[in-house]
Specification:
alpha+beta, 8 helices
Length: 261
């Protein structure tokens, strides 16, 4: 991707770091709190395990048809639990923004349409979640006014793609700006970022440190393929990621009301 411009197929990004007040309600068994809704680690595992199982089944079937035996690495999808949390939280926040603005989300993208690019069977819940998120994010991108094209936002998108190995590393701001062309998809990303951060603040978003940095699922076109990536908007240093730890057990003296220095 040296001379070729990157054109966003769907730019769904949050570029800043959310600065929120710690809620003090985090549990190790919870992946994230979004308003009054809780996403448990078990829920994340459920989506993740389903994705891995269905992916492996599809690979085995294709290999059997070709008379081959897949390796253990070939049977494992690149999908991570972090990817699952990114989707679940983004869908939730996105729905809240849509409702507040009185927008209507068209059912345009399906798991079947995204399955090949995701390298995931359409029956997998992970693929279905992606279809739901693309519909939401496309609606928001069409309604939100474009933001200013700053060097910070340009490089945030660049570094997010760089982490996937989908773009040449080590480029300067000037080189990235040239590569991104008019940067329309970055402007849309920054606008969505502001809306996501505002909503996260309203609902007092809390994220388990295991799943930080939290990012908004995104993808761009690279020739004939899509590059899937996530732009962080809750970092590990954010106060909302603090997990409450249990109080130490009281000593017998403390239980009896004694005070130690």
């Amino acid at each position: 991707m040296r001379a070729r411009r990157i054109i966003a197929a769907a730019s769904v990004a949050a570029l800043g770091v959310v600065s929120l007040t710690a809620c003090g309600r985090m549990s190790p068994d919870v992946a994230a709190y979004v308003g009054d809704r809780t996403y448990s680690v078990d829920r994340v595992d459920e989506v993740y395990d389903d994705a891995q199982t269905r992916f492996a089944e599809a690979v085995r079937q294709q290999a059997a048809e070709a008379g081959a035996t897949p390796t253990a690495d070939q049977l494992r999808s690149t999908v991570t639990r972090q990817d699952v949390v990114n989707l679940l939280v983004s869908i939730d926040l996105g729905k809240r923004i849509v409702a507040e603005r009185g927008l209507s989300v068209a059912d345009q993208y399906t798991a079947e349409q995204l399955a090949q690019e995701l390298r995931m069977p359409p029956q997998a819940e992970y693929a279905k979640l992606w279809g739901e998120w693309v519909d939401i994010s496309m609606t928001l991108n069409q309604q939100l006014p474009p933001a200013e094209l700053s060097d910070e936002s340009v490089m945030a998108v660049y570094h997010a793609i760089e982490r996937t190995g989908g773009i040449q590393p080590g480029l300067t701001v000037a080189q990235v700006r040239q590569l991104f062309g008019d940067g329309g998809f970055v402007r849309s990303a920054a606008a969505l970022s502001a809306a996501m951060e505002e909503q996260a603040d309203k609902v007092h978003l809390s994220v388990n440190p295991r799943f930080t940095p939290l990012g908004v699922p995104s993808y761009v076109n690279k020739g004939q393929e899509l590059i899937f990536y996530a732009l962080p908007y809750v970092e590990a240093t954010s106060p909302v990621t603090d997990v409450s730890t249990p109080e130490p057990a009281a000593t017998p003296a403390e239980q009896n009301g004694a005070v130690t220095p």
